[in-house]
Amino acid sequence: MSEPVEIALLRLPHGEGLELPQPLSAGAAGADIRAAVEEPLTLAPLARALVPTGFAVAIPEGFEIQVRPRSGLAARHGVTLVNTPGTIDADYRGEIKIILINLGDEPFIVSRGDRIAQLVVAPVARATYREAQSLDETARGAGGFGSTGR
């Protein structure tokens, strides 16, 4: 197992009293993060909202934080993230906000302290791009979206 990556976390005033992001089991890859809403927020079916978390972070260079949905919210209520996985870059210092969407049939209420997403720290490989006149051949070729079968 690799050493933990230390993430500096700044609690914002509206994050007072909320638990820090944390994995909830020994084998969990993600750390749950909670809603820092002042009042309950109702998400109608197909509605989306930018939900504050009350925290900002400093991610070490060479890493990112991926923001991912919580499977329980998706399975039980159809609530997920619009951009998944979302990326928090190492040089971002603003508040973490979660773009929730309700794909369910019923309104969904987000209350203060609800676990709304999970954060996964991941290494980032830097790439350089160069223009080429052609690309090497592969068995798949240019086949995209569904071209490899089911």
Name some characteristics of this structure:
150 residues; mainly beta; Deoxyuridine 5'-Triphosphate Nucleotidohydrolase, Chain A; four-stranded antiparallel beta sheet; 10 strands; 5% helix
What is the percentage of strand-forming residues? 35-45%
- Enter the CATH topology name: Deoxyuridine 5'-Triphosphate Nucleotidohydrolase, Chain A
Strand neighbour order, sheet with most strands: 1-4-8-6
Number of helices: 1
Unreliable segments of 5+ consecutive residues: none
Q: List the secondary-structure elements in sequence, H or E.
A: EEEEEHEEEEE
C-alpha geometry:
globular
Number of domains as seen in the coordinates:
1
Tell me the name of the CATH class. Answer: Mainly Beta
What is the CA-CA span between the terminal residues?
34 Å
| Rg (CA only) | 19 Å
Largest sheet report: 4 strands, antiparallel
Overall CATH architecture: Distorted Sandwich
**CATH homologous superfamily label:** Deoxyuridine triphosphatase (dUTPase)
